[in-house]
Amino acid sequence: MILEGVLDSPDPAPHSIQFVHVPYDAHAELAIARELGMPELDGYEAEIIRGVYRTTFYAGRNPRYHRPALR
Q: Could you read off the pLDDT of 36-51 as tens digits, one per residue?
């Protein structure tokens, strides 16, 4: 998303919002993360492939690397 407008304007100013599509190779990203030994790769994979955020993915479990979500 691109937000355009007048930064720090004390008065109301016009603004616009543009949604842009950026190509992203999620499987290539996972291959790199796997190669680098990323902790909790299963949660990251759930997030970028299936859209299941890690707080939901790890619900009821204590993640080894990330802190539990604050409530």
A: 999 889 999 999 999 9
